[in-house]
C-alpha cells in the first residue's frame, strides 16, 4: 500500500500544476467507468459512456449539472460512487492521498508540498501537516453535523433511508456539488422547510468560504473567548483575506436575495404562490446556492430574465479561494474593483482595509478575469453553434459549468453529445482553476527579461 500511495502521489516528471490536472482526470475517468456498469444503474443496463463521463465530471468537479437524476438513474452502488467522487472532488485527490502518505511516513517531498500549496491556493505553508489534517477534520465535522440536523427533516419522511439521504445531501452541500438523491426536482418540495433550507445554506457557505478563512476565524475567536484579545483587537487581527471574504460574501448573499425577493415577489412560477416565509426562504436560498452550490428550492427556469441575469453574474463570481466553491472568487472581484476605484480617484496604490495590494496580485486577478471571460465566450459560442436553445439558457448553462455551480434553466438533459463535451471541458477547467489548467498544458519557458522602450497608446 505504501508503494501504491507513493507512486500515485509522486508522479515523477510532472509539474505541480500537471499533478493536479492529472489527478482530477484520473478520478473522473475511473468514476465514469464505474458509472457505466450495470450494477450502478437501476435498469441493469450499461450507461452511455458520454453520459457517465458527464456525471463523473460534474461530481468530481463539484458542479451538479446532471443528464440524469441520480435518484432515478443510479442504484445505491452508483450513488455511493457519485458520493465518493463528490468528496474526492471537494477535497482534491492529492489532498486525500497526501493525508494518507503523511499518516504513513510523516512527510512529503518539496515538489508535492508545492502541488498541495497550488491546489489549496496558498502562498505559504508553514505547518503543512497541521493545515492538511485540519482541512480533513473541518470537512468531516461539518458534514456530520449537517447530516444529523438534516435527519430531523428526512428520517420522519423516509424512515431509515432518511439517514442515507441526510448524509448524501450534507456532503453534497458542503462540497458545493448540488447533487441529491431525493428525486428529479432538487429540493423544490422543501422550499418551506426551515431545517432543510438553513442547514443546506449553512453547509454551502461553510464550504465556500475557504479553509484558510475558517482557520483564521477559529484561532482569533479562540483567543477572544480565552480573553487574550478584545473584540476590537479580534477585528484588527483578522487576515486581510478573511475580511475581504466575509464582506464580499455577505454582500453577494443578501443583495441578490433582496433583488430576487423584489423582482419575483408576484411571479406565480417562483415566489408568487408562496407565503411570506416561503418567499424569504426561496429568495435567500436561491442567492446562497449561486455561491456555486447547485441546489434549488425553486425552478430557475421560471425566474424573470432580469433575475436570471443577476444570477449569471453571481455564479460567475462564485465563492472564495481555498474552499470547495468555483468561479473567479470573491477576492479576485474585490481586488479588481478596488483597483478600478483607486485609479478613478487618482491614487497610485490600491488598498483594502488599510492594506496595500501588490501589483502582482492585481495583475493575477485581472488575468484570471480576462481568461475566464475568454474561455466562457468560447464555450458560449460553441454551444450557440451546436444547440438550438434560447440565448439566456445557453449563457446560463455555460456560466454554471465554468463556475462549477450546477444550476440550469432545464436544458442539460437535452444537450447533444458535442454540447455535453463542451460542458465537460468547462466544468473540468473551472474546477482545477484557469491558471492551473493553462500551466499544466502550456510549456513554461524561462527567458531573461528584456527592457524595451516605453510605448504610448491612446485608450478610452
UniProtKB/TrEMBL annotation:
Q: Which PROSITE patterns match?
A: PROKAR_LIPOPROTEIN
InterPro entries in UniProt: Cat_transpt, TrkH
Q: Where in the cell is it found?
A: Cell membrane
Record keywords: Transmembrane helix included? yes
**What is the top-level taxon of the source organism?**
Bacteria
Residues passing through the membrane, by range: 20-40, 46-68, 80-104, 131-155, 162-183, 195-217, 238-263, 283-302, 309-341, 361-387, 394-415, 421-442
Q: Which UniProt keywords apply?
A: Cell membrane, Ion transport, Membrane, Potassium, Potassium transport, Transmembrane, Transmembrane helix, Transport
Identify its membrane topology class: Multi-pass membrane protein
- Per the record, the major location class is membrane
- The name under which this protein is listed is Trk system potassium uptake protein TrkH
